[in-house]
Structures are given as C-alpha cells and as structure tokens.
Amino acid sequence: MSEFQGRRRSILKGSAGAAAVASIGAGGVLFSPFARSQTLKFTPEKGAKLRVLRWSRFVQGDIDAYMANVKKFTEATGVEVRVDNEGWEDVRPKAAVAANTGAGPDIILSTNDDANLYPEKLLDVTDLAEYLGKKYGGWYPAVQQYLRPDGKRWLGLGLGASGSMIVYRESMVKAAGFDTFPKDTAGFLKLHQALKEKGTPGGYALGNATGDSLWTNWLIWSHGGKLVDKTNKVVIDSPETIKALEYAKELYANFIPGTLSWLDPNNNKAFLDGQISVTNNGISIYYAAKNSPDPKIKEMAADINHASFPIGPAGVPTESHLFFNQMVMKYTKFPNAAKEFLRFMMEREQFDAWLIGAGGYIGQPLAAYESCPIWTSDPKHTPYRDCVKNMRPSGYEGKLGYASAGAGADFIVANMVAEAASGSRSPKEAAERAQKRAERYYKV
User: Fold this and answer.
1) Neighbour count for residue 302 (Cβ, 10 Å)
2) Which Gene3D superfamilies does this chain map to (predicted)?
3) What CATH number corresponds to the domain at position 198?
4) Which of 142, 231, 238, 259 has a CA between 20 and 30 Å from the CA of residue 396?
5) Are 255 and 340 in the same domain?
6) Is there a domain that residue 385 lies in?
7) Cα 150 from Cα 353, distance rounded (Å)
8) What is the extent of the structural domain holding 257?
C-alpha cells in the first residue's frame, strides 16, 4: 500500500467514528443519527463567558478574520469571549501553568503535541471531533496522531498548521545557476554553496524557534534518521543521523552568520531586509511583502516563490510543520459554551473566511477545506495547501504522549543539529548527547 493510500485510508477511518448514537447525548447535546452528519450544537450554560489564549499573529489578516468570527459567535449566542494573544514561546508555559493550577483560559490554542503534556487536564471533545470529521471529509492522519493518540478519545481539535516550506528569491536562485528549485538534498546543498559564492546566502533558524527550527526534523528524517522507533525506543544515535549531521555541517557553512541564535521572527526580518535569499517559513514573508507600505519590499513579492523541502536519501517526502491545536481545559465552568465556540469557528462559513483572511498562512486540518479559494487565488499559495496532509508529527515514528511532547518542547533535535552544524560537537557527540537527553523522556 502506498503512503498516499495509507493516508487516505486513515482519513476515512478517522471520519467514520461518527456512528449513529442516541438522540440525546451527554452534556445536553441534541442530535439524531441523520442530523449528526449535518449539524451539531451545544447549548451554552446560562451566563457563560469564555477566555481564549492563542498565539500572536504573524499575519494581520489571521487575527482580523478570527476576531470577526468571534464577534459573530457572540452575536449569535450572547456568550462574551475574551481573546488574549501571546507569542508561541509564551503560550506553552502559560498553558502548562493553567493545566497544573486548574485556573486560567477556558480554551487554549497551542502548538505541536502540547495536548499530550497534560491529557488528563483536557476536556474530552470526541463528540465534536467526530461530527466535524464526518461533515468535512475527515481529519488528516497527523491530526489524529497528535490529538487522538490512543485511537479513541480526542484531546482537542486540530486547527491546522503553519507550513514550513521553502521561501526563496527566484532571481537569486537563477543567478546562482538554477532554473528551478532543487528537488533533492544533493542539489539543495549545491544551491546553497552557489548562493554563498554570489553573496546571497541562505539562512535557517538553529535557535529554540518553535516553528522555524522544525526544518531540523526534515533534515534528520530525510536521511532516514528518527528520534524514536515505532516502539518508542530512542534510536537517534544512528548511522543515518550521523550522515544527516555531516550534511548539516556542510550546509551550515553556507548560511549567513548568526543563525544559531535565531528565533521565529529572525529569518522573516533577514529575508525582507535582503540579507538572505532562501529560508524556511510560513507564507508570512510573502504576505508581509505583498502588503508592505514600503515600495521596495512590495516589489520583492513578485520575486518570492515557495517550494517543498527536497527529498533526501530516505526517498520520500519528510515534511515537518508547526501544528496548531485547540484545547478545552477540563476546569472550565462552561464546557458546552466552549465546545459550541469551537464548533462555530470550525464550520465552513467561518473557517473558509478565516483561511482566506490569513492569506494561506494556515493549512487546514480537515480534507474538505482543500477546496477553499485561498489555495488557488494565487499560485504561490498552493504549495502550502497540503502541508497538514503531508506532514509527519513531531514525535515520528513513535506513539505521541508525554515523552514526545516533552522531548519536542526541549528542542532535542534542533539542539543536536545546531551543535553538529556549528562544530561545537562532532556529529557523533551531538547524536550521543541527544540520545541521552531523549532517553530521560522515553523511560523504559
């Protein structure tokens, strides 16, 4: 069975969970077996008020469209919703504090597999997840792996992902002797060597960047390495990883200086300042250029294009993207209002408008939204459309849970690549250190 067929089968299987149930469900939810595939509504508690904590926008249209939908929800239900925005690096610790203290936001929009750090603190949203999956073509496999790791209970809802795609200047790539962006790792290295010679280097985050350091997962996976195997045994110290780290050292030699300390905003700034010609990022660089009041930056938009990461010795795509989840905290006093809010925000009337407002910055978690007009209104948006469908979860190849979430939050892979690439440790030493760090999370 091909990888595509496997994904398709998994999507269909995940969608089939919305089987016929009693006409009155738990929590005052009203539905029938037929109506469930059409609509599902939760009756908010009397006097309900909600507080939502979410990551700050990198694209202004994202928050504008999101808040427009929030206003629509309040107008429709009378439920007041307060939305607080924090940086990615700040949402994770605040979410952990809320989970541990049992107080704070009712709903938290966080990243990657944070839900697996405190699954017992989260409200079961299986009924809502199954309804949405059946109505909108199914959740992609990685979404299910992140939020339904036991194959039964849904810990939260997928929101989508910010695609970590290649962003490059077409004119500079052509000046370096490449008519098209390389599709394999050998060509990828040659391109960066040529770009450096031309004085137009590339640059990728090697600091503890929540989103932009995910390219290091691609690097390891593309060479056949992985943090853990299917049994959750730590196997990062492997010949495949060593080869990947040796490649990383060659690649890093062509980067602009300073990438070891880069966090998520740094490569955006370097690219728009004209310091680098290629990086990995969401669509926010292109979006910022198109909408810039600076004529020089606006002109740059025509020269920007996007591509998938190249395929390495592993022989298959190995994409890693920043996944966004939506978690309802179990301590909420208004569980029905919280579920109704998420249902409302995920329905087509609101979700399509949000995807369009965000300008392609977020790729959808449900298959039906592949038809959203945002993906074809500009050909440069299209590479981001399938990022959630094609991505591997950050805990690949093991089962997600406390260990994968903790290891991801500790930037083990990113730190290993940074150490080897910069020469502060040999590839073998970096892999051995990563092995020991990971084993503290994946205890036998």
Assistant:
1) 12
2) Periplasmic binding protein-like II (3.40.190.10)
3) 3.40.190.10
4) 259
5) no
6) no
7) 32
8) 165-320+410-441
In this prediction the pTM is: 0.85
Q: For residues 66 and 53, give the distance between their C-alpha atoms in angstroms, rounded to a whole number.
A: 13
Between the alpha carbon of residue 321 and those of residues 110, 179, 194, the distances in Å are 14, 26, 27
CA neighbor of 262 nearest in space, from 207, 201, 213, 203: 207
Specify whether 289 is located in the same domain as 231: yes
What stretches of 391-426 show up as alpha helix (H) in DSSP?
Answer: 402-409, 412-422
The per-residue pLDDT for 65 is: 97
∠ CA(207), CA(213), CA(217), 5° rounding? 130
Count of CB atoms within 10 A of residue 336's CB? 18
**C-alpha closest to that of 160 among 414, 428, 368:** 368
Question: Tokens 């697996």 — which residue?
Answer: 116
Instruction: At 424, list the tokens.
Output: 């502060």
> How many residues are recorded in the chain?
444
Whether residue 362 sits in one domain with residue 310: no
Locate the DSSP E strands across 39-124: 49-55, 80-86, 107-111
CA end-to-end span of the chain:
32
Amino acid (one-letter) located at 293: P
Same domain (yes/no): 252, 329: no
**Beta strands 49-55 and 80-86, pairing class:** parallel
Question: Which residues on neighbouring strands pair with residue 82, listed in sequence order?
Answer: 51
Residue 315 and residue 172 share a domain: yes
Strand partners, 306: 167
389 in a domain, yes or no? no
**Number of folded domains that form the chain:** 2
Are the C-beta atoms of residues 404 and 398 closer than 8 Å to each other? yes
Q: How many CA atoms lie within 13 Å of 152's alpha carbon, on the beta-carbon side?
A: 2
